Amino acid sequence: MAKQCFFVGCDNNSTNNPEKLFLTVPQKVDRRKLWFEAVGRTYIPGKSLYCCEDHFDLEKDAENWIHFKLMGTRLMLKDNVVPRSIVRKETSSQFTPTSRKRKMETQQHSRGLRRKLFPEPTVPGTSQDVTEDVEELQLKTVASPSGMFVSAKSPEKAVSPLRTKRRTLRKATQTRVSTKDQSSMTSVEVADKSTNTLRSLSSQIYQSPHKPIQGSSTSLSSSSLSLQSGSVYEPSSDSLDETNMMISKELLVKVEIFKIENNSRF
């Protein structure tokens, strides 16, 4: 629907004068009555009416004139402004083709500044460049300047040398831990065997030789007494002391040898 200027005696409308700016008559009752009194019309509440720019000095009457010209936002008039019968004589519109062109250039310039100050996130490279890069990665293994190595089978996965080094160190640490566990288990087993051996040697040392032997002959040395079958013999205290001393010396030697061998292992 065409916008018609409601000022008495003004024939401007948006169809015949598309270059002109048409301002909406305020809806607030107080201001609306002031506008109707200024143009000499009877007050009509609620209806949407318009007044063309010829009845205003927009540079002075507009509250956001500079912002409106630079950014193209909605024009806001000051509260005390009312339409006047003064029509601009120098031009038929405050927005001549030259000024409109200048306004468009200003808006384009402001948009360019916006893009520079607030750049939108863009994907680098075109789809063709991405396709060529993928094909090149599939043909051969590529080493980038940052030290990232890309496999030809899976070009999307990149492995850093630092990550490879960390994995190697982790595996080496796990191997050391498992080796220490095995060595500790071996040490426990050797200690158990040593304890068992010492116990057996101790039992041999403290084994009682005073039990009587029946049913067969026994010789302690080449000059010892020979016993006939069925006789009972109990060794003398001197022979028992000598035998115990020999056994003790032999066992002590074995214990020392066993200690030396175990110390060399650990």
TrEMBL record:
InterPro entries: THAP_Znf (IPR006612). Residues 1-86 form the THAP-type domain. Residues 180-192 have a biased composition (Polar residues). Signal peptide: none annotated. SUPFAM superfamilies: Glucocorticoid receptor-like (DNA-binding domain). Transmembrane segments: none annotated. Keywords: DNA-binding, Metal-binding, Zinc, Zinc-finger. Residues 89-132, 147-192, 204-239 are annotated as: Disordered. Residues 214-231 have a biased composition (Low complexity). Pfam families: THAP. One of its GO terms (molecular function) is DNA binding. SMART domains: THAP. This is THAP-type domain-containing protein. It comes from Zophobas morio.
